[in-house]
Amino acid sequence: EQVAAHVYGPEGYAHGEPFLRVFSEAMALGCLSPREVVQDCNDVLWRSGPTPFALAGETHRSMHMAREAVEAREWHRVLGVRDQALDATRSDAGDFEYKYWRWKGYLVRYACTHKAGQEQRPAMVLVHGFGASADQWSRMMLQLKGEHDIWALDLIGFGHSEKPTISYTQFLWEDITRDFVLEVVQRPAVLAGNSIGGYTALCAAVSLKEMCQGLILCNSAGRMLSKSEWQGEQTSLYNGNGLRSLMLKQGLPPKKVLPNWGLDLFGRVIIAALRPNVEKACKGVYPNCPEAVDLRLVQNIVRDAKDPGGYSVIAAGAKLPAPITKNELLHEFNKPLLVTQGLNDPLGGGIAKTRFNLYKEAHPNPDLVHLVGLEAGHCPHHEVPELVADQINKFMKNVVAVQ
Question: Which of 9, 229, 242, 248 could share a disulfide with 328, CB 3.0–4.6 Å?
């Protein structure tokens, strides 16, 4: 993530991001008082008088955004306290519980089925897609919990996790997922992910090395090329290497991005437009079982988008660094892979079937790849959870047997 930050550089940081990057952990540890931060910011703002944000100087804007960042942190802290108090009232509270973990000072919510003192079973970590949360895995967790210890996290910027106004990248989410396995799960695990969560899980699996036993992808996002296309791209763009290795050696070139006010406006407009159409949009990507889009899913997505900072994830999408191809990542990963693909996924121009058939070609050891095509859309783990769970149970037994 630090390497990726060079793509947009300090001038491309979101409003308030420098403050959060410097002081987030200090506030979480109690080394810096949030009250003092707010008071100092108010002192500066009151002395400068009422000034429209768009016309204010850099100091005025920095103070304003620092104060907003502290207030948003407190809002999420109160949300976490409320979650903990009400967790036992959920209808499925007996099947899994929600907890919180701090990553670099930010609150991250996660669901888990494993309880202290229980015998350890094969571990699995689930990563949701864009706009979703750990709760979208709840049906899968009910299907799998008898056989496995399962964790599902809300990535920063989604669900009930904190939504700081920072520059979100695929590398940020990779780091969170990797550190979650190392700090919370603390043992080798199989990673599973849907959509951008699938790509995140693949990136984290490469970083985790021996701490990741296998990978499960459900309609994963990310570029995947035919073997000849990938080899041609390596030769022409990366001198025979891959983007990941090149990035780690020498960083990435700067990327020109829109001004922050434009990104913020873009994020707020998109969320305002999508909010009243969540149910319709979800049913569009659940073509085989639209009834699976229940009130719980819709309410979760709408509620999460209203959190302070929720718009910043959308805004950050305009300045994402270049993606590493799944071909390159799979070559580094080179471990057992299960792909449960909803073949009727309308996203990406309906290329789900084409992309599905490339996995064996992209993986260096096709014998380790198990492909399962399903009559489902973009989120098969939620649309047909029993079918996906059946394949996961079979895959997990094979992976554990090999280990």
Answer: 242
Contact by Cβ (8 Å): 218, 129? no
The Cα-based distances of 21 to 5, 108, 182 in angstroms read 11, 16, 22
Q: Which of 116, 187, 166 is nearest to 310 (CA)?
A: 166
Using DSSP's 3-state secondary structure scheme, residue 99 falls into: strand
Rounded to two decimals, what is the model's pTM? 0.90
Task: Please report, in tens digits, the pLDDT of each residue of the chain (403 residues total).
Answer: 555 455 555 566 777 788 888 889 999 999 999 999 999 989 988 887 777 666 667 777 788 888 988 999 999 999 999 999 999 888 888 889 999 999 999 999 999 998 776 778 999 999 999 989 999 999 999 999 888 999 999 999 999 999 998 888 888 999 999 999 999 999 999 999 999 999 999 999 999 999 999 999 999 999 898 888 888 887 777 666 777 777 777 666 656 666 666 777 777 787 888 888 899 999 999 999 999 999 999 999 999 988 988 888 877 766 677 788 999 999 999 999 999 999 999 987 667 787 888 999 999 999 999 999 999 999 999 999 999 999 999 999 887 665 5
As a whole number of angstroms, the distance between CA 69 and CA 113 comes to: 32
User: Is 111 within 8 Å of 101 (Cβ atoms)?
Assistant: no
d(Cα 25, Cα 164) in Å, to the nearest integer? 13
Q: What is the CA radius of gyration of the chain?
A: 21
The one-character DSSP state at 7 is H
